[in-house]
Every structure is written in C-alpha cells, then in structure tokens.
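Take one record.
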Amino acid sequence: MARNIVDTLQPRSAVPATLIGVGLGLGAGSLVAASVSALAGYFARRVVTPEERRTGNSIIREVVTDAEGKLWLHFTKDSDTSEPGPCSFLTEFDSCALRLSAPEPVPGKPRLVARKIEKVYHGTLQGVRRGNLSGAIYEHPSDLGFDAEDVVVPLEGGDGPAWLVRGSANVDIWVIGVHGRGARRNETIRALPALGELGVTTLLMSYRNDGLAPGAPDGRYGLGDTEWHDVEAGIQFALDNGAKRIILMGWSMGGAISLQTADRSELARHIDSLILVGPVINWVDVLSHQARANKIPQSVGLFGQWLLSNKAGRWVTGQAAPVNLRRLNWVERADELKLPTLIMHSRDDEFVPNGPSLKLAALRPDLVTLKTFSKAGHTREPNVDPQGFAQAITGFLGKRMALLETI
C-alpha cells in the first residue's frame, strides 16, 4: 500500500479538538495522552535544537594494516557504513577527523565493511570505538588545492567566519555556499572543483547555530525561516567586495534557506539563480517522513508539526517564534518561484526524500533543471558521482554566465 504523504499543513488559529484530546486526556486515557504529548514535544524539540554532542553510531570492529602499510577501518556493516562513496569519520566533539575511502567487502567476514584511511585531519584513533560518518569529506579548501582567505561576514548576531576562494575568469560572479542542518561550511567544499573550472568567486559561509557563527537568541533552528537573514548578510558582504551577480548554492536545509533568501531578501534582485543539493523543498514532507522512519504514529507527528508552527508550542520547543511551514513549502508555492534553479537530488536519499524536488521540477519546467542521482545518500551526490555532479553545475552555470554576458 502506498504511504500517504502530507504535502500541506493548514494553519489553525486554535488547537484542534483532536489534539486537545491528545494533549490533555481525560480519565483512564490521560496517561496515554500525556505520553503522546511528550513524544510529540520531544520530536518537535529535536527538529529545531542543534546537537551539541554526537556519540556516533558507526562501530569500529578492527583496525587493519595492509601489505602497503595503509590503515583500514573495519566497521559493523549497516546502511551507513556501507553507503557508496568516500566519507569522513568524526568522533565525539570532533576530537578525531579522518577521510575514508569508499567501502569494500572484508573477505570472509560478511558482517563487516572496510574503508581505507586516506587522510588524518587531526586527532588519533587511540581508544576510539565509534563515530559518525559524514559526506563532508574535506576539512578545508586547501585539501582540494584551493587557496582560501579567512574572512568574516557581519551577521545579525555577530561575526560569522567564512572562506573566500577568489575566482579567475569571472571574479565578479559569486557563488555563496549555504550548508545544511547540523553541518558546517566544509560541507560545501565539494563544489569547488566545478566552480573553480568556471572561474567564479566562492564564499563558503557559516550561519547561526552551526557551531562557528554566533547562535540565535533562542538557540533554535528556524528551518530556513530565520537563517535567511544571515545569507542576506553574506550577499551584502559579496556586493561590498565587488560582486555583481550572486548564485546561492544550498545543501539540504541550506536549500530551504536559499529559497527563503531569494523570496524575502531586499537584496534578492542581485541573485541570478539557485543551485540546490538534496534540498528541503517542503518541510512537512520531510517531517512526515522522519516521523515514519522513527516509527512515530502519524497523529504524534502531526502534533509535533503543530507545535513547531503555532505560538502555543513555543513553551515546548523553546523557539522565540513558530516556524511558518506553509511559507517553506515550495511545492505549494511553485507558481511563486522566480529564479532559474538547478536541483540535484538522489532518488536514494533516505533523509530528505526527493519527492518534493520532483514535484517542483514538474510544476516549473520553465525554471527548474533537475539532475537525479542513484545510490547516493543525503547530500552525497558528489561523493558517488563526482563527474555527474560537476557536469550538472558547469552546464547550468555555463548557460547562466553566457546569458549574463549578453545583458
């Protein structure tokens, strides 16, 4: 049976009667209702609360040295450790960071998967048993041979560190990289080979709550509904330093942020186009998917969405203001899209499913160029198919730049 996907969340001025029943409960059902309410509140808080600690789910079973003296990590085989393409391995508090190869089978040990250590960025594996695997495989632009200047973007809450990679042939065209939820600016480094080929200038920026830029006053994510102010500051920085046209490149939640910037910023007239990688096009779809993936009942998931998007939920989520989920739904707002947009999204993305990307592309073929990938997890398109990823960028931006030359 096909799953029911919720595409829209209708705003309500009051708590629905069914949710009041869930939230309050009466008589014999009060304990169950309280448990449901607590689960919905936990779900909603997790969505908007940055994670300070990541203990890691990928378990190292063996560290092996091969005949050439190269070190290999043997992990317990699961969907994360066996995901195609190279990755990085990060331990708690980022005390150790490694770049690992694509996975390979371990002969005679079908329950294990092997990845070679390609580079040690910092730290040591001594005493390490588990960590997180990430698609952000580079720590600094120099890891790909790019010279990067450390610059500061004045944000609403203070100074945000950024890397500036100056262009060659097209120095006044700036691409601003906007990373995703729970990530940092190094996530966007993987686009530099394609952007360097085009000779554009690139600004890889940080924004509120990412652990580098100052946090938001409430310490909560706005899912794009607030972070766009920081990207607007990035655009102003670019304009102040010689940019004439801007391209926003958003990854995951950075896609939602980029769409809001293009829609709501007073500087939007300077934005030529958007490039979105594994983007959140409709948060309601993502939240519904995550609730199902975590075996949360639909009613609980809907209650969690309601808590996120209504003032009454602020005491549970800790948000200064509710998130406007309807404003973040670009399937429903497809007719309001104004800019040429390249969407790159894997059909095998299990964190942010590509359904809304496909729908937006179908609704706006006049503006949206869609490049689909296979076998790539969330935002790992450049890891699994670097050539296809680069070609999609150079093809799309090459046409945009040729058009700009005629204006």
Confidence is low (pLDDT under 50) at residues 1-28. The two ends are 52 Å apart (CA to CA).
